[in-house]
Amino acid sequence: DRIKRKEHFFSFEYFPPKTEQGVKNLDKRMTDMARRGPVWMDMTWGAGGRTSDLTLTLCDKIQNEKKVDALMHLTCTNMEKKKIDDALAGCKKVGVRNILALRGDPPQGEEAWTATEGGFTCALDLVTYIRKTHGDHFCVSCAGYPEGHPNVRKVITDKNWDPEKNEPKYWAVRKLPDGKYEGVSPEDWKTEQNYLKKKVDAGSDFIVTQLFYDLDIFYEWVKQCRAMGITVPILPGIMPFFKAASFGRMTGFCKTVVPQDVLDVVKKYQEFGADKAKAKEFQEWGVKYISEMCKKLLASGTVPSVHLYTLNNQLVPYKILDALGFPKEKAQVPIDRTISLSVNSKRTDKGWRSGLQSNPSTEELKANGNLAPVTEAEKKLEA
Predict the structure, then answer these.
(1) What pTM did the predictor assign?
(2) 13 catalytic per annotation
């Protein structure tokens, strides 16, 4: 309904803390952040169910205490069928009906991902199994990789490849610190896109993307998705800037294409070490950069929302939402609670949920001067 009304919305992602005090802190933080009116709040799933009980407990809190729809990550790593069945049964018990189906990362300390005997080999298997065993009870979402999954991003060794012209065309090329180039080969990119289509055809209701910073690559990826018949909503995963020192770990793990101007700023602030004033300055720069990026995304009409990877942080996401013009609190009104996030879902439960204020549309944001000018690349997307 929100997408049809061209309303913008947002959502938050968290991870289960390792300590009891950390859990208490996150619980309080989620209570506060629920007041901002996210459409959902999601919780990650440790490899092999390492944090499965805590993940479900926190999703229960989101769903039934915070009165926000919970979206639970569920992965294939070290998960035989019974563990998947137990996790889904646990969701049913507490009323969580939204699942983000993922293959998952390798267990801690291991480089390669391997399937568990009696388990699942990929996210497609998981989506298919959930639909087969539970029908439309769950709203199932899947991950999308605008720059290609890290596994298919490889150093370009083709001697015939021209780095200046990018011929033959590799997808999402980036230059590595050692001077080599990395990207996705034409063959792997075709396989990658076809696999995403299969996940959608198997029953994924929407796509949440991996983090990215290059808008041109993202827009072209969305255009390709639409051209091949992927019609479900695509929701961009946005990773804010928190600390200059740790920025490279996540982008390195994901093999993210980072614009050179961003790399230059990050490098500059990394040189200041533990200087608190400079750390705050970097964070403020990051808020401005991400806010402008999100404004362009929403203004383009390509996406209806932004999904913020909070890393359990409250301050930075708040500043980004403020810059985007979202209400500081949602209206508290009783409404029929839509349990599934599925766009076409008609499943409702006579329950109580804090209602959401209408968040600003593209037109309203433009009127208030909260949208950056649309770039030429964004205009081309609509052509």
Answers:
(1) 0.85
(2) yes
